[in-house]
Design brief:
423 residues, alpha/beta, Molybdenum Cofactor Biosythetic Enzyme, Chain A, Molybdopterin biosynthesis moea protein, domain 2, Molybdopterin biosynthesis moeA protein, domain 3, 4 domains, 7-stranded mixed β-sheet, 30 strands, disordered N terminus
């Protein structure tokens, strides 16, 4: 990462609160879409297509049978009944993956398998259950019109049609369609590579014993899960001590593999705020307070044109900040157009209280009962209680100017986990 020519730093740490909407709009305005690259289909799954994929030929490329039976001329069986069957000479076979052995002339039939090519001269298929096979001929016991059980050329897609449109997030059926057309790669916006750093002298890795006053690093794994869920590629850069130089070295070491950085801890007002000190003279990083609970102290900027998110250290604040600010930004970077979580209106089954001057994101469990959605808090509002997030499936938005949303009132909930009926 090269040293920028003109560094800019903005510190609103002691200034007025900024609204969630203002901050999110500013972040989204400063984040661009990752340049498209050609990826093999296996790696393109889940990525957003960067250009229309056009069919280079008809699909299917040949007419085939939809049934096991006999390929015939419809006019030869137009009068066939069980009392007066049509007798046709068996001219050969048509097997899947091979050219037909014979053509179908007047009074002839070719035995055919499902998916096998339609032999020249035939225009209908008689399913095997309507046939009585003898040694050299077949008796057809009912009539079938032209085109019966025939899969025509181009039935699925015509040459020149759009196979998969630009902007589509590629799913399994899309990959299958592209593979069927002969494509083995696609031009997509790649997954964002996100480096995650945890700052704090008090942190230790999971699985290690903690000394008195130490805590295990939960934030990196909360972010890892959120990044994977969003379709990004996370890289855990480890725990960084409260040392600005150590943080700068860690960022420099990860620069070549990162499209985005996220650090947790060190953005609030205090003498150990390592993120502020590390980038006071580097890049364009803005530190500010947001009128939200949890997650008031935030940082965002660019380091050599790479987005950098500085989050507070409390685990619930990290989760909420990721959902509100980082997830939409990453989805935009990866070419997604549906960048926001779904919202629903729910009825509160218990009071939710919070600061009147902040937008509160209260952890709630949502379920459906009696034809409407209900929500209940999963625990106290303290930002260190990560279990309240684990038990929740949504964040209730208690707006500015409201200190208590009473039981029975309607609130808007941002869903971050699939709802289960009756749960």
């Amino acid at each position: 990462m090269a040293e920028p020519g003109a560094a800019a730093h903005h510190d609103h740490g002691g200034g007025e609160l900024r609204t969630v909407e203002e901050v999110r709009a500013s972040i989204l305005d400063r984040v661009g879409v990752l340049a498209p690259i050609e990826l093999p289909l296996q790696e393109a799954w889940g990525c957003v297509l960067a250009a229309d994929m056009i069919a280079g030929g008809d699909m299917p490329a040949f007419s085939s049978s939809a049934m096991d039976g006999f390929a015939v001329r419809a006019e030869d069986v137009s009068e066939a009944t069980s009392d007066s069957p049509a007798s046709l000479r068996i001219a050969g076979h048509s097997l899947i993956g091979h050219m037909p052995e014979a053509t179908v002339g007047a009074g002839e039939a070719v035995r055919i398998a499902t998916g096998a090519p339609i032999p020249a001269g035939a225009d209908a298929i008689v399913p095997i259950e309507y046939c009585v096979v003898r040694e050299a001929d077949v008796l057809v016991i009912r009539s079938f019109p032209e085109g019966a059980s025939v899969r025509p050329v181009g039935q699925d897609v015509r040459s020149g049609e759009v196979l998969v449109p630009e902007g589509r997030r590629l799913a399994g059926p899309d990959l299958g369609l592209l593979a069927s057309s002969g494509r083995n790669s696609a031009l997509v916006h790649p997954r964002a590579r996100v480096a995650v750093l945890s700052t704090g002298d008090e942190l230790v890795d999971p699985g290690r014993q903690t000394a008195f006053g130490q805590v295990r690093d939960a934030n990196a794994y909360t972010l890892f899960g959120g990044l994977r869920d969003a379709g990004a590629t996370p890289y855990l850069g480890g725990i960084i001590p409260d040392d600005p130089e150590a943080l700068k070295e860690a960022v420099l070491g990860l620069a070549v593999r990162a499209d985005c950085f996220i650090s947790s801890g060190g953005v609030s007002v205090g003498e150990r705020d390592v993120v502020k000190k590390a980038f006071f003279k580097r890049g364009d990083v803005d530190f500010y307070k947001v009128a939200m609970q949890p997650g008031m102290p935030q940082g965002f900027g660019r380091l050599d044109d790479v987005p950098y998110f500085g989050l507070p250290g409390n685990p619930v604040s990290v989760f909420v900040s990721f959902e509100v600010f980082i997830r939409p930004a990453l989805l935009k970077m990866m070419g997604r157009r549906d960048i926001f979580r779904p919202h629903i209106m729910t009825t509160l089954d218990a009071n939710i209280s919070g600061p009147r001057d902040k937008l509160q994101f209260a952890r709630v469990r949502v379920w459906r009962e009696g034809g409407e959605w209900h929500a209940v808090p999963t625990g106290p509002s303290a930002s260190n209680l990560l279990s309240t997030v684990s038990r929740a499936n949504g964040l209730a938005l208690i707006p500015l100017g409201v200190d208590t949303a009473p039981a029975g009132s309607q609130v808007r909930v941002m869903l971050f986990r699939a709802l289960e009926e009756g749960s």
